[in-house]
Amino acid sequence: MITSKQELQELAQIKKAQNDSNPKEKTLDTSSAFYAKQKRIVLENEGIIDPEDIEDYIAHGGYISLFKALDEMSSKDVIEEIKISGLRGRGGGGYPTGLKWESVSKVKSWQKYIICNGDEGDPGAFMDRAVMESDPHRVLEGMAIAGYACGADKGYIYVRAEYPIAVDRLTKAIKQATKLGILGENVAQSGFSFSIEIRLGAGAFVCGEGTALIASIEGGRGHPRQKPPHLSDNGLWGRPTVLNNVETLANIAPIIKNGGEWFRNIGTEKSSGTKVFALTGRIKNTGLVEVPMGTTLRELVYDIGGGVEDDKKFKAIQSGGPSGGCIPEHLLDLKVDYESLKEVGSIMGSGGLIVMDDSSNMVEIARYFMDFCASESCGKCTPCRVGTTQLTQLLDKFIAKKATKEDFTLLKEMCEVVKSTSLCGLGQTAPNPVLSTIKYFEDEYLAGVCND
Amino acid sequence: MSTATDDRYNKLEKVMKKLGYEKNSLIEVLHSTQGIFGYLGVDTLKFVAKRLKLSYSKVYGVATFYNYFRLKPKGRHNIVVCLGTACYIKGSEKILQKIEQRYGIKAGETTSDEALSLLTARCFGSCSLAPVIVFDEEIKAKVSLENPLCGIEESIK
Ligand SMILES: Cc1cc2nc3c(=O)[nH]c(=O)nc-3n(C[C@H](O)[C@H](O)[C@H](O)COP(=O)(O)O)c2cc1C
Ligand code: SF4
Ligand code: FES
Question: pTM (2 decimals)?
Answer without folding.
Answer: 0.96
